[in-house]
């Protein structure tokens, strides 16, 4: 049959009626990088519009995020070098930058949903995501699990709304869940970075979070970009360990994985639209070679179409303004 598909595209009302996916401000989580000190707001060279901020400026930022309708934030701590050690012990200091920030943000903005990253790469002096095991020249999985549990409890006690473990240690979800439940935090959800690839797209983030490993790479714990079955298994495994929300990171180069996990799990699924993806669009905007706003919205929509419910993105503020103006 000669089907006239264009019948359903000829006017905007019909296009809206048959539209399968839409972007919504409520889909977004906005990442924030917090440094110690006062009155600090350092823009990241490769990520225009993204800043390292001290807590006073973070509180101002939270107000503007709320005014834009953005309801969820994801916090990363950027401690000074002298507070880092081989274990990353500052990560479970209850007076550390993130526990302190959570308390202040929740005091001033109780409606804002505060999520905290759970990992050690910003806190270890070697930049890896846990304690090192010299025998394997990499991270000691089970020793790191104990510390992830400690960090989780401190964050929970600080009043965080959700935890987002990103270390890619085996068994991290069940370890955290058991520790949280034993301390009475049965209602605190875990959004797992369940399928996190060892990706070059993280480059600009490591500049902003000052978390580059000072030797080697993260390929012995993060997922190999060549592997699809293993990537799905990672997320399904976290589901079985008790994760409440799954995630694929990065987003754009791994939309096939997003779609596959969407088909195999009934849990909510997030994508992390990472720093390198953001930086490339910003570079394209600066060079004047793309219509930045349209490309950005098209990119964000592709995540929804692939099956993501939640989008962690540095574009959230710009997208919120554009969506509000529609
Ligand atoms: Zn890490």
From TrEMBL:
EC number: 4.2.1.24
The keyword Oxidoreductase appears for this protein: no
PROSITE patterns: D_ALA_DEHYDRATASE (PS00169)
Pathway: Porphyrin-containing compound metabolism; protoporphyrin-IX biosynthesis; coproporphyrinogen-III from 5-aminolevulinate: step 1/4
SUPFAM superfamilies: Aldolase
Broad enzyme group: lyase
Residue ranges of coiled coil: none
Keyword annotations of the record: Heme biosynthesis, Lyase, Porphyrin biosynthesis
CDD domains: ALAD_PBGS (cd00384)
Gene3D superfamilies named in the record: Aldolase class I
TM region positions: none
Reaction(s) the record says it catalyses: 2 5-aminolevulinate = porphobilinogen + 2 H2O + H(+)
Domain of life: Bacteria
SMART domains cross-referenced by the UniProt entry: ALAD
Family: Belongs to the ALAD family.
Subunit structure: Homooctamer.
Protein name: Delta-aminolevulinic acid dehydratase
Record organism: Helicobacter trogontum
Gene (UniProt): hemB
């Amino acid at each position: 049959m000669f089907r006239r598909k264009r019948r359903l595209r000829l006017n905007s009302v019909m296009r809206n009626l048959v539209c399968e996916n839409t972007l919504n401000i409520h889909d977004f989580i906005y990442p924030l990088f917090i440094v110690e000190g006062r009155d600090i707001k350092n823009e990241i060279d490769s990520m225009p519009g993204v800043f390292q901020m001290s807590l006073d400026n973070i509180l101002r930022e939270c107000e503007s995020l709320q005014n834009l309708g953005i309801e969820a934030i994801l916090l990363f701590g950027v401690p000074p070098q002298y507070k880092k050690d081989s274990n990353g012990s500052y990560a479970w200091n209850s007076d550390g930058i993130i526990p302190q920030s959570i308390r202040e943000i929740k005091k001033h903005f109780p409606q804002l949903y505060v999520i905290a990253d759970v990992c050690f790469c910003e806190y270890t002096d070697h930049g890896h995501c846990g304690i090192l095991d010299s025998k394997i020249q990499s991270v000691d999985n089970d020793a790191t699990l104990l510390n992830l549990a400690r960090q989780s409890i401190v964050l929970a006690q600080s009043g965080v709304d959700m935890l987002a473990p990103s270390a890619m240690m085996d068994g991290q979800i069940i370890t955290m869940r058991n520790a949280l439940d034993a301390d009475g935090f049965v209602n605190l959800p875990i959004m797992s970075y369940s399928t996190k690839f060892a990706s070059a797209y993280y480059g600009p983030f490591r500049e902003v979070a000052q978390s580059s490993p000072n030797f080697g790479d993260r390929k012995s714990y993060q997922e190999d970009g060549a592997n699809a079955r293993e990537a799905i298994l990672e997320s399904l495994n976290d589901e079985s360990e008790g994760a409440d929300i799954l995630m694929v990171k990065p987003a754009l180069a791994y939309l096939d994985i997003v779609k596959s996990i969407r088909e195999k799990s009934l849990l909510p699924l997030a994508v992390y639209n990472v720093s390198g993806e953001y930086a490339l669009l910003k570079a394209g905007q600066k060079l004047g070679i793309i219509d930045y706003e349209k490309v950005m919205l098209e990119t964000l929509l592709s995540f929804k179409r692939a099956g993501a419910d939640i989008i962690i993105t540095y574009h959230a503020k710009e997208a919120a303004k554009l969506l509000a103006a529609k």
